[in-house]
Design a protein that fits this description.
By secondary structure, the chain is an alpha/beta fold. It contains one helix and nine strands; from the N terminus they run H-E-E-E-E-E-E-E-E-E.
């Protein structure tokens, strides 16, 4: 077998192996989102997603010269109380807005702000952005249907 054929087989195997791992990972995420978490530990020993509510911590930070929200995607179940805690690590005030929920807050530099979200309906994707600085990177709030 020639060297070029060996290199081709090696490169093809690596590409297909990486593709298989990516597909497996995506399938795992979809299964968790569709079926829910069946964890019997930190969720009050209840089946399914936590029903007592969600506390989500978000950081407004400057990375590589760009202002971002971390995490950039937040997923929560509907019909559960959700509290967002946003900490601004930058040296200037930043906005936090979700138009669909009527939320428009200003988070002072170096401070933390808590926001109680109104009751959420499932199957929604909501944009989170800084209303003070439109060029900043936005984030996403994904609301999925939780167990009934």
């Amino acid at each position: 077998m020639t060297r070029s054929r060996i290199e081709f087989r090696w490169a093809t195997g690596r590409l297909l192996g990486g593709l298989a791992r990516a597909i497996t990972g995506l399938l795992g995420v979809f299964v968790l989102l569709l079926l829910g978490c069946d964890y019997h530990g930190g969720h009050g020993n209840a089946m399914g997603f936590a029903s007592a509510g969600w506390d989500v911590e978000i950081i407004s930070a400057k990375i590589g010269g760009k202002n971002v929200f971390i995490p950039s995607t937040i997923a929560v179940a509907d019909h559960n109380p959700v509290t967002l805690t946003i900490f601004n690590t930058t040296d200037t005030p930043h906005g936090f807005a979700i138009d669909e929920l009527g939320i428009r807050e200003v988070i002072p530099s170096g401070e933390e702000t808590r926001i109680e979200l109104p009751k959420l309906e499932g199957h929604k994707i909501l944009k989170i952005y800084c209303q003070l600085h439109p060029p900043h990177r936005s984030a996403t709030l994904v609301v999925f249907r939780g167990p009934r």
